[in-house]
Amino acid sequence: MLDAARVPRAHWRAMLANLEHEAPAMMRQRVEMVQRQVRENGVTYNVPADADGRQRPWDLNVLPLILPPEEWAGIEAAVIQRATLLNKILGDVYGKQEMLREGLLPPALIHGHAGFLRPCHGMRHHDDVALHFYAIDLARAPDGGWWVMADRTQAPSGAGYALENRAIISPTFPDLLRELKVQPLAGFFRTMHDSLTHWGRLCAAKGDSPEPLRDGESPLIVLLTAGPRTESYYEQAYLARYLGLPLVEGGDLTVRDGVVYLKTLAGLHRVHVIMRRVDDECCDPLELQSSMLGVAGLTQAARRGNVLIANSLGSSLLESGALLGFLPALSRRLLGEPLKMPSVATWWCGEPAALEAVVANLDRLIIKPSFSQLPQFAVFGQDLDGAAREAFIAKLRANPNNYTAQELVRLSRAPVWKGGSGSGLQPRAMGLRVFACATPNGYVVMPGGLTRVATGPDSRVLTMQMGGASKDTWVQARARVEVTRLKKHSITSADLVREDTNLSSRVAENLLWFGRHAERCDNIGRLLRVALNFLFNVRFDQRGAEWSTVEALCIRFQLLDAEKKPAAPGPGQTQSQGGAPAAAIFTDAEIESALLLAVVSPTVPGLPRQQRQLHRVASQLHERFSVDNWRALNRMVQPSARPGERPSQSEVMTILDDAAASLMMLSGFALDGMTRDLGWRFMSIGRRLERLQFQSIVLQRALAMDVNGNLEWLLELSDSIITYRARYRAQPEWLPVLDLLLRDETNPRSILFQIDGILGALRKIALTHGACGEHLLAPLKDELIALEPGADLNHGNATLSDLLNRIQLASAALSEQISVQFFSYTDGQQRKRTS
């Protein structure tokens, strides 16, 4: 930000003027807005080292890094040159290996690296591009010069976070973005998608199993993830949603006759391009390393040219820091020009002269493993003294090939905004990750990147695993930037799509369970609200027969622990009825304590635990939901209560009311924000199955209570009290209540409404995927409709209770049949559906 005379540089002056002339409260508001957006958008960076496996919120500082156009032009040219060079090296190492024969690369460095995958030798690459996506870690020295710290060539992460950073920071400084002519990022991702589409068409046409695409038909591009437990899973899901790609796991793909297919409910769909976020060695358990993350036969499919893998298998080899010292000579040999940006001084200890130089200058070096397979951490030479220093030098001399030394660079500092007490600008060490993608016409660089800053003033290493923070990166443009796009194939009327044909069985199953868990949250929240209203507002001696039924329902849904010793009821005690264990006896204080815990603590069965289960299922569907949908989900998950903390009655009821409102919002997204495609039908079936089972259980328990019991609680629990009052303007009675909750096809909470919805969805699915379970519910619907209002819809009718019990059992059987038919795949089932 400042030059040698401590005067603000020209590209920072507009930002500083903005900060200088606004009230301190405005900056606090900006910081709070950024933090709120990160939290509500659910932006996380998972840290495997965390003991509880929690998701760490993304740390985004409100101040951007600003780069002027002339400085960026030098960075851009250097990144393009370096990506081109590394792509040529990758092609040579897995091809003719001329650089090894000429001595420009030490054979021990290549063949000793676990990242050198021998099954990939001789693999074909369309347009000779093996490195489709590239990232480079840069650091700026205090004199302003940029240095390359590391190359990211296997499955570079961070571009999605850079895009999310821009989306969050843009509304914070909208005027400054325009004034400083900050270049947008969207064009880079369009170019990347267009390029992968181009190569996907070549795979379809030129592989050894050619299936040319129709004019206007797009190749199928998928993003392969290792799953929600990976560090950057949020970014992977975000990119998949932004680019419109299916987010798949290894189990979603299969290889048949050297061709990769996506396993969908409609059968097998050929995959042409895989953007992978799975490590090299885990991609193919057949030819590489045994792993549940990969796809058996993937290497063979890539070798035959039937699928493009970005980046190519084996590209992790280039991430070895030991290669940095050899790049200047390789650049002159392969490109005929020197490197435009130097790497940080690097010595591979496998060379005798380099080893002696490292030992002599150990204090100002950082020592890293040469090979990714070595379980070693970086060692700072200045931290070693005495016996520890001598022991480490002995290790270096014993296995010199295993170690690479780099100069310890004193990083340039960038301003960050520190909130709280003493808020203001503070300096922090900074590094920049820049991204490039390959196109048929060369490499294109994202006009920005992921700026990483140290959390403390003396940090020597920038890493997100250790809690590093990030900044948006603003690259100024000299003039309007024209983006050149590849020729696109037009979509004709014959190519219009009305269904999600790439819905995998895993995603469909998760959608069904998302619907079920969302409904369970609603059921538990409403039951807790009804039960606590009794405790808070109705004296024990004034409670009717309905209270024991509500208590029995709390036991049935594990909100109360039925494992209690028998005891005779005393003052303020009740004995559960309506099918609950006869030995379960609770005082009001015990019930209140248990139910309050079920409202605020995830350690017991209750609302927070169920909300977190819903969130876990939703995390498997991140790319399927809109940002607004995710905000509603993230707002719904309540923070855990501190041990020993007892919430007040008003706080508890507020939590339950907010939870009900959030779930209604989620329902609104499902009803008005999602297309009625196959995925929506499975989610709808999940919601209706869960509601059908819950309502069947509740009505069975209600029918078992005293005939004179008050029925308002039942209408409240079924969210039907307003409808009843609007229609009858009288106290609830059995006949109209049962008609409303059993046979009213217009009531979204009635048994008939659920059965109708399930049968309707099953019939739609049957049109393309075969009949499934309709016979389980259809006869029961006929029985329900045939009930006589005067004779059958009454409290003492045993036939009605039996019918509800059979409906409950049938819904459970239907759930099992759906799982077997759609979510359990065998070769025979797949081939039948494909034909």
TrEMBL record:
- SUPFAM superfamilies linked: Glutathione synthetase ATP-binding domain-like
Q: Which domain of life is it from?
A: Bacteria
Instruction: Describe the location of the Circularly permuted ATP-grasp type domain by residue ranges.
Output: 64-454
**A Pfam family this chain is assigned to:** CP_ATPgrasp_2
**All residue ranges annotated as the DUF403 domain in the record:** 503-823
Signal peptide start-end: none
Q: Which Gene3D superfamilies match?
A: 3.30.1490.270, 3.40.50.11290
Its protein name is: Circularly permuted type 2 ATP-grasp protein
Classification from the root reads: Bacteria, Pseudomonadati, Pseudomonadota, Betaproteobacteria, Burkholderiales
